[in-house]
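Hello again, I could really use a second opinion on something today. I've dropped the whole record in just underneath, so have a look.
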Amino acid sequence: MLSFLYKVYQFCIVLPLGLLLTGLTSIAVATLSLIGFPVFAAKYIGSFWAWAMLRMLLIPVTVEGKENVSPQQSYVFVANHQGAFDIFGIYGYLRHEFKWMMKKSLGDIPLVGLACRKAGFIFVDKSSRRAILQTMTDARKALTGGASLCVFPEGARTFNGHMGQFRSGAFQLAHTLNLPVVPITIDGSFDILPRMRGFNFVNHHPLRIIIHKPIIPEGKGPENVRHTMDESYRIIMSALPERHQGYIKNPDQ
């Protein structure tokens, strides 16, 4: 009975209010970015949108490890990608100035794509070698400007709750710019809305975000990039529940 009532609540209350809030947030972020306030728009208005969406859905969120990062420091945040609600969780609760590195296809979403472009978020274009190099150049510019970057190194949401492979691009950027890498474990997003269900009713399930201690760059060379990537992978997985432990290949990879 409670499950049925929760679905009615989502359809009658959350869906219309969520669409309205998303539209208004996108317009506000795009407008403020155009008149010279992209950082304020992305950090405060965008994060309020993500926080409000989770609150409307009555999703309990716990965040651990906020003390591990400093607001004055630039980082490359790397997280596992359990589902769509990873974005709401990190954006709404990390409370740090950063730019998203996201799929190019997300830029086609009406209003949302416009807001993301105006806020300076980076769209990953894998259509050609030149496009990939341009993506990395855009990310480097964002980081050298004093912002942080948030990346899902798996590149795609899991189909099974287990972590897939990491791509090395974000770690190479951190290595080039001598920036700390902060691993983030997300647990619960897969249970809220598994990827296989597409756009659907969500399950009422806790969302847990663990911000681990930064991995400080040591030395130079590809072996250091590999070490940071492997260590980030190990740390992120270590905080997942036993049922999601272990690597399972993601068909998207």
The chain has a mean pLDDT of 89. The chain has one domain: 2-244.
